[in-house]
Amino acid sequence: MADLPFKPVEKVIDIVLEASIRQLDYIINYKDHEQGLKQHIATLESNKKTVDERVPVAKDNAEEITPAAQDWLKRVERKMEESKEFHDDKMLDSKTSCFSGGCSFLWNRRQLGRKAKKILAPTIKQLNQETPDILANISHPPAPTFADSNPLDGDYLEFESRKGIIEKILEQLKDPTVRMVGLHGPSGVGKTSLVKQIAKQAGDSKLFDKVVMAIVKKDPDLLKVQQDIADGLRLTFGNIGENGRATLLRKRLKQENTFVILDDLWDELDLNKIGIPFHDDDVVSSHVPSSKKEEKEQTASENSPGSSGTSKRGCKILVTSRYKEVLLGYSDIVKKVVEMSNEIPKFKPETLHNYCAGLPMAVIIVGRWLMKKNKLEWEGELERLKNQQGSNEVHRYMESSVKMGYDHLESEELKSIFLVCAQMYHQSLIVDLVKYCYGLGILNDVHTLTGARQSISKSIQILKDSGLLDSTSNDNFNMHDIVRDAALSIACKNQNVFTLRNKTLDVWPHKEQLERYSAIYLHKCHIVDGLPERVNCPRLTFFYIDCDGSTLKIPDTFFEGMEELRILVLSGIHLQSLPSSIKCLPNLRMLCLEKCTLGDLSILNHLRKLRILSLSGSRIEYWPTDLDGLSKLQFLDISNCFISSSTRSLSLSSFPNLEELYIENSLNKMEVEGQINHSQISALSELKHLHQLNTLDVYIPSAELLPADLFFHELNDYKIVIGDFETISIGDFKMPKKYEASRSLALQLEPSMDIHSLKGVKLLFKGVVNFLLGELHGVQNVFYELNLNGFPDLKHFSIVNNNDIEYIVNSMELSQPHDAFPSLEFLSLFNLKNIKKICCSPITNSSFSRLKIIKLKMCPQLKSIFFFYIVEFLTSLETIDVSECDSLQAVISKEEGSNKVVLHKLCSLTLQKLPSFVSFYNNSDRPLEPESMEKQARIIDDIGIVPAEDEQSSTTSFSLFDENVEIPKLESLKLFSIKIHSIWSDRISNDWFQNLIKLTLENCNLTYLCSLSMARSLNKLKSISIIKCSLMEKLFISEENNNEYSKDCIFPKLEEIQLSGMEMLKEIWPCEDEVRADSFSSLISVDISQCNKIDKIFPSHMKCCYLSLKTLKVSSCEWVEFIFKSRLPSQQSGTNKSALLEVIDLHDLPYLKQVWSEDPKGVVNFTNLQSIKISFCNTLSYVLPASIAKDLGKLESFSIYSCRNLEEIIACDGGSETSNEPPLMFPEVVSMSFRKLPSIRCLYKGRHIVECPKLKQLTMIECPNLKICKTESANEEEGASLSAEKVKVLTKTFNIIVFYSLYPPHHGHDLIDIKHKLMEKLLL
Predict the structure, then answer these.
(1) Segment 199-256, tens digit of pLDDT
(2) How confident is the model at residue 24 (pLDDT cuts 50, 70, 90)?
(3) Residue 189 in this model has a pLDDT that exceeds 90
(4) Where is the AAA+ ATPase domain (predicted)?
(5) What is the largest CA-CA distance in the chain?
(6) Within 254-374, where are the H helices?
(7) Of 6, 919, 1111, 1269, which one has the fewest beta carbons inside 10 Å?
(8) Does the CA dihedral 1007-1010-1012-1013 come out positive or negative?
(9) What is the distance of C-alpha 1203 from the center of its chain?
């Protein structure tokens, strides 16, 4: 016990000793700590390089970078910046050497050792440890947008009646009590086009977080409906069944505010079975945060950009059907059923009723034919159409309309093509139509596939002009449902076609019917008893079965009665051996066995007339060595096939008439034990025997497989990939889709390969249109060494990951200028380590004359993009995008005698992470002093000492554009991490950038945005975004002689301002005497965050600026005291002005005193306010001045969260009220939320009663003193709250009442007691 008093002393001594040892360790072992840190940094740099390489690959595959990966990269950037001083060994030695004079080296050693060991090393080590997880989860596929998956119809007819329906449905969707809306109308009236318009408007207005759509159709495929919805939500099901999908989908739909469209229901659909939540119980309210961390995360999420701000998560549903009875089946949840009539006011109603049933599709079809006819022909055809109709049923009218268009097609060939189109799916491939029509032999005088493509292209355009086909793309076509139904009816009657889709086939048609059929189509049908042993179809020319499963068996004698069959399509079927009865098909011209499992194919030799053979996606167990019987074959598709067993050759030489060959991703899958390369070489060597070949789609894993005498130059279309397959997904290159006409080449050679030995490949350079060039060892000059013709047809050129190329064009050794890339439209250079110049030799005027876009990234040796003399050739240049080019000093390099640079068509300029950049137009060959490039904010170390030698900075200043640069059509300017100090020089002409629309700046050394004279010229600017420009103190500066531009209007069309992370910014707006009052008159959105030196958002002289404002968001601005700093006039003018402001969102403003510095008292009205959200504003005592609160007729939602000193919502107007004051009305308020407001006592201290007749959701959390309601007989001194009498009525219609911690938790009330207490507090 005697030693007890000394225990604390020993403890103190131990602590002091430990601290002293730690400080000595920093000094003595600083070198070890420095080396350890450098090792961590080297590892981090390597890891960052790996991640950086993966990011563009993911982006080029249209994937989104995960937030975790983005955060990791930001943290790495910060740590690399903080550790910069450890890269300069010379500086470190000068600071830590004992010969530096005095004892300061000890202090420097201590500081550096401490920073290396304690501050940087642990965090950098942690970043390195996180790298594997980041690489494993670097990106994810993006959700397809609604517009991508459901493009708007180009022929959408906008009628006045339709506008009313759209407005009515949107109004219902905004109502929180409505869960489902129904829309019904007859087929062809335009329901699908209408709901797409509704979806577009709902998406544009941010009414929902997500919009998804599924077309249900008759006999719906529930799995497809689930998949369509999941695709729009970016939800992956995996290998789970229908019930599991429904559960997963239901959970996902509850997470966001989602709009689900179910189009074209024929019968009532079980929404629960699909996984669509539709009861009120499925709506999830904002939950109560259970911890401080969760509270901060929830608040940050709600205040994040792009947040919908809604407190409900779940889904609303729009259902369309032809039948009202279907919608009435959902009467318990459908709150509104809207009818679409057959009304088109521009036409005479009796004409539409008599001839078109008022159907827009019928009008289009009839009208497009009659529009070219005279009056007599009109009357005759309309009379004939009228006489054809024996019924008033809508489908009869539609069939008659389609029949009329069909009858007037100019040839039987065109009619046959139209009926074939009707048998195909939505968004069918044009190439499939070519194959079907060529296989059927219905194209007159067409004997080649090239001729067939041309004929079909013309026919599609004629059918589209006739209204019988919907809008088409280069690869697809579509047909409206009701046109298809009518066409199938015509085909059934005229050509005896049997079609069944998504049905069960229990009984085969009678023998007499089968004998009459010319075509049988079975799409996704369940054939109960399987196929019969034999069917007698002597007239059958087309037989199609698309099967989901592999259980269907084809009897060996099945095809014996189909002698006239010309097309046979079997998809998804397991065929261990092909039926022997295939030999009984002597007239077969097209055979498709796609996604099948196939055995021996030798029997195909019996099909002597076969022209088209497609085995795409199949597994082929045995490929015959001899297929001489297919000598007439013109089309062969074996892409994505798995060809195994003992395949030695593809027997391609057996097809001397082959025109089109598709073997993408099949050569690399050919498996021959120990001889994979030999089989691939054999297959490629046979290509030289195909003299008629004009289209080739092939992936060759290695250039070593290419025979020396193989030539491709006679091909019309090709997609050839030679080398590393992953290369084609790097940078901006996209290989065209299968069957898409193109001349595309992706080339990457092994180090041992010489491009000059591949003469066949080099011949392709003359005609290639899309070219991706990877590693090509030994080639330094693209133009001179690869193609002296200058790549005359090349339009899209990407070079990636090449370490040898130094020049794109360098023809100094040639005596005359040559054409170089005269057709080039897109140039992308990615990760070219040694490229020095793009073009540095004389070229002709046509060179680069069509170049529209140039993108450069990670080209560290490049100092400029173009020399001045090339600028005159860049007559089409529209976009320049340059990033991470460490040596780049200028976009255009000056030369002796250079004049002014004018880029007449350039509309987009992006410069990012260019540490050596000086200006747009500069002498890039002169050496730059490091001091002249540095003018950055000082970084203070952890003890606040700045070394004396760092306190000086150069006065040299660089402008991006000077008086010698004119870009009159520039619309978008984006600058990221550029060390310029101003954008425009003082001497620049004010009209040279007058078309600028969007300006984005991030992490630049700018001290201001622009001068007032320059601002005056930017009269088309709509968007300004400035982020982390830490030196900027104000946005605008005045010239020394500012009388010339005083009181001018600036930025008259500016709609959006975003300012974030501006540490030094003090002034946003010009001074009162510098600009006119109508400046910024179109401003719609202001978003300001992390600007800690601003004390007010809108000063008094900027009143006109916020009159047009609709959205205002201010967050994390430490010193803001007022949002609207007002100055009331001494006398009322009598002309009050109304602001358009709809949304106020204020977050984390610790010194905010008042939103409005003074009550505007009607001088400015805020009658359009719809949403007010305020959180973490702890000095705010009230929200709304009384005059504003009395006129908020459009306010819908009100949310106040964690404002410690808030006492009331509405400020009392100074005792001017009487006891007979009318109530304060908020007629549109639907939701109120008050959370964590310990000081609040009432809504309003005045005598008014507050009434909210539409209030549906009331949330009160941790507001122990709040008296939300009172009776009219209560003490008037307590202040006004919600009328209890009104609330008694409203509680019957409340959807949700949230209550929690109205009483302190230690009172011990259980949930039931709290509920009773709450109701007492509300109603008594």
Answers:
(1) 888 877 778 888 888 888 777 778 888 888 888 887 877 667 777 888 888 888 888 8
(2) low
(3) no
(4) 177-345
(5) 127
(6) 271-274, 292-302, 324-328, 349-351, 360-370
(7) 6
(8) positive
(9) 37
Query: Phi and psi for 1156 in degrees, rounded to 5?
Result: -105, 125
Q: Tokens for 193?
A: 């086009």
| Amino acid present at 1221 | E
Write the CB contacts of 72 (distance below 8 Å, at least 6 apart in sequence): 51, 127, 130, 134
The 10s digit of each residue's pLDDT in 827-886 is: 999 999 999 999 988 888 889 999 999 999 999 999 999 988 888 889 899 999 999 999
For the chain, give the number of residues: 1324
Say whether pTM exceeds 0.90. no
Tell me the CB-side half-sphere exposure of residue 738, using CA atoms within 13 A: 15
Q: Could you tell me if 822 and 790 are in contact, meaning their C-beta atoms sit under 8 angstroms apart?
A: yes
Question: What 3-state DSSP class applies to 37?
Answer: helix
Closest to 776 in 3D by CA, of 801, 793, 796, 795: 801
Question: How far apart, in whole angstroms, are the C-alpha atoms of residue 239 and residue 770?
Answer: 38
Q: Which residue type is seen at 1257?
A: Q
How distant, in Å, are the alpha carbons of 296, 1115, 1117 from that of 300?
6, 10, 14
| pLDDT value for 727 | 54
Q: Which strands, in side-by-side order, build the sheet including 1282-1283? A: 1224-1225, 1250-1251, 1282-1283, 1269-1270
Residues forming beta bridges with residue 1259, ordered by sequence position: 1233, 1298
- Burial string for 994-1018 (b: 16+ CB within 10 Å, else e) reads ebbbbbbbbbbbbbbbbbbbbbbbb
Residue of 176, 221, 216, 215 whose CA lies nearest to 315: 176
CA distance 582 to 559: 6
Are the C-beta atoms of 629 and 656 separated by less than 8 Å?
A: no
Question: Which of 1306, 1302, 1296, 1324 is closest to 1315 using CA atoms?
Answer: 1302
Closest by CA to 1070, choosing from 1092, 1085, 1048, 1040, is 1048
What does the alpha-carbon distance between residue 1120 and residue 1096 come to, in Å, rounded to a whole number?
Answer: 5
Asked if 640 contacts 614 with a C-beta cutoff of 8 angstroms, the reply is no
Cα dihedral sign, 209-215-216-221: negative
- Does residue 231 sit in helix, strand or coil? helix
**How many Cβ atoms are within 10 Å of 1220's Cβ, its own excluded?**
6
Least confident of 783-792, 1138-1147, 1242-1251: 1242-1251
pLDDT, position 927: 44
Give the model's pLDDT for residue 950: 38
> Looking up tokens 């067939």, which residue turns up?
452
CB neighbour burial string for 1265-1301, b if at least 16 within 10 angstroms, e if fewer: ebbbbbeeeeeeeebbbbbbebbeebeeeeebbbbbb
H-type helices in 1043-1160, by residue range? 1103-1107
Question: What is the residue whose two structure tokens read 């440890």?
Answer: 129
